[in-house]
């Protein structure tokens, strides 16, 4: 990265994020994402994901700063960054290269809806009745019937989020695997999910979708009334997140596994 990179500051609508946007833009200038060397979202993890979905195709490195309620994917915001220290922080960052998941959902109406997920793709029951799902891996039936509230597939970066809350494993960055985790599985009652190679093609078939409707959500993009959902790691999309060396993403993921809180 150049000594004084061109930065595109992007902020959520919170008062703190908007104030930081004004201060940082005054100190370092403001550039459009297409013209910038680095994107700098100001907010929480939700806003980081919005930024990745909106601008990830540009291939620009992303250095987020926490000005929201949850900031696992963000760096700490420091008021002194508006006085010129941000360039020094950027020069010292460590990169983490992430690959999103591709979701292709088929709906009852016959529509095909595609989306990317940097955290996870989740299938959830839409009514009081449990979902009935069949799971195929690389075209081979692997689980004939999963009766559950839902199921999700998480990337390593997303494994500490919804996946971890559903008792799924935390995955190391660079391990080239994804987590397949059930949500309140009723049958098989003791099935805890699986860790799969990242290139595995996972296909969910919804059994009796009219009586037991299911939705699929890629990060925050929801598709209702799905009948089949295919998920695999993207073959051509990556995103590079930048982190301060004292608190990089790999260290945060390790800390999550050794905390008692």
From TrEMBL:
The cofactor required is:
a divalent metal cation
Q: Where does NAD(+) bind?
A: 45-46, 119-120, 149, 157, 160-165, 184
What Pfam families has UniProt attached to this entry? NAD_kinase_C (PF20143)
**Principal subcellular localisation of the protein:** cytoplasm
Q: Which GO terms describe its molecular function?
A: NAD+ kinase activity
Q: What keywords were assigned to this record?
A: ATP-binding, Cytoplasm, Kinase, NAD, NADP, Nucleotide-binding, Transferase
Q: Does the keyword Lipoprotein apply?
A: no
**In the Enzyme Commission scheme, what number(s) does this protein have?**
2.7.1.23
Active site residues according to the UniProt entry: 45 (proton acceptor)
Locations listed in the record: Cytoplasm
Q: Which SUPFAM superfamilies match?
A: NAD kinase/diacylglycerol kinase-like
Q: Which InterPro entries match?
A: ATP-NAD_kinase_N, ATP-NAD_kinase_PpnK-typ_C, NAD/diacylglycerol_kinase_sf, NADK
Q: Which reaction does it catalyse?
A: NAD(+) + ATP = ADP + NADP(+) + H(+)
Q: Does the keyword Kinase apply?
A: yes
Highest taxon listed in the record's lineage: Bacteria
Top-level EC class, please? transferase
Its biological purpose is as follows: Involved in the regulation of the intracellular balance of NAD and NADP, and is a key enzyme in the biosynthesis of NADP. Catalyzes specifically the phosphorylation on 2'-hydroxyl of the adenosine moiety of NAD to yield NADP.
As for family, the record states:
Belongs to the NAD kinase family.
Cross-referenced HAMAP family, in alphabetical order?
A: NAD_kinase
Q: Which PANTHER family match?
A: NAD KINASE
* Cross-referenced NCBIfam families: PRK04761.1
Query: What protein am I looking at?
Result: NAD kinase
Organism in which the protein naturally occurs: Luteimonas notoginsengisoli
Output the lineage of the source organism.
Answer: Bacteria, Pseudomonadati, Pseudomonadota, Gammaproteobacteria, Lysobacterales
